[in-house]
Specification:
The structure is a single chain. By secondary structure, the chain is mainly alpha-helical. It has one domain. It is 49% helix and 11% strand. The protein has a two-stranded antiparallel ribbon. Helix 1 packs parallel to helix 4, helix 3 packs antiparallel against helix 4 and helix 6 packs across helix 8. It is elongated and about 70 Å long. The termini are far apart.
């Protein structure tokens, strides 16, 4: 059975509908699902993390220098401007970041029992003065949306972003769209 090709028309241009495609190194799907992309980015981030494990746990380097080393690992955030994050995605990204921060800040000695323990998430948030990884993604998304808005309505990217699809949508729980994420990010920030 031959697959049917769907054509999308914008003004005088026609485009074939793709199931997935790569944009700026990020794999985008027609279902607006980025779980595989985030999984791939986190896998690359873990490779960088393991390569930098010794400097991050070194007692010779200052914590500020270790944080600068962490910030120079942008592989996790590559293409994040196009992501529509679910709560699960946000949690996975925070787990990765907290693992790196625990390596940077090390264990803490409990005053009562005098035993060493891992830092709690709240303690990590207090020690790490910079915005967390989810907040960085939100600010990058807002910046990219502003860039697209400034390109003008005649540009293809802006028309695709602002278009209103024709026809009816199937009945189901609506997925969170990129545009919805931008609106929520703008309200939060």
């Amino acid at each position: 059975m031959q697959d049917e090709v769907t054509v999308i028309k914008i003004d005088n241009s026609s485009f074939e509908r793709e199931e997935e495609f790569v944009y700026s190194g990020t794999t985008l799907t027609n279902q607006n699902s980025i779980q595989e992309e985030i999984k791939s980015r986190l896998k690359s981030g873990n490779v960088c993390y393991h390569l930098a494990q010794n400097p991050l746990s070194s007692s010779v380097l200052s914590k500020n220098l270790k944080i600068k080393i962490y910030r120079t690992m942008p592989v996790v955030l590559y293409g994040c401007e196009t992501w529509s994050l679910t709560l699960r995605d946000k949690r996975r990204l925070r787990v990765f970041e907290n693992r790196v921060l625990r390596r940077i800040f090390g264990p803490k000695r409990d005053e009562v029992t005098r035993e060493w323990r891992k830092l709690h998430n709240e303690e990590l948030n207090d020690l790490y003065a910079s915005p967390n990884i989810v907040r960085v993604i939100k600010s990058r998304r807002i910046g990219w949306a502003g860039h697209i808005a400034r390109t003008g309505e005649n540009r293809g990217v802006c028309r695709v972003l602002m278009r209103k699809p024709e026809g009816k949508k199937p009945l189901r729980i609506p997925r969170c769209r990129w545009e919805d994420n931008i609106k929520m990010d703008h309200q939060e920030m």
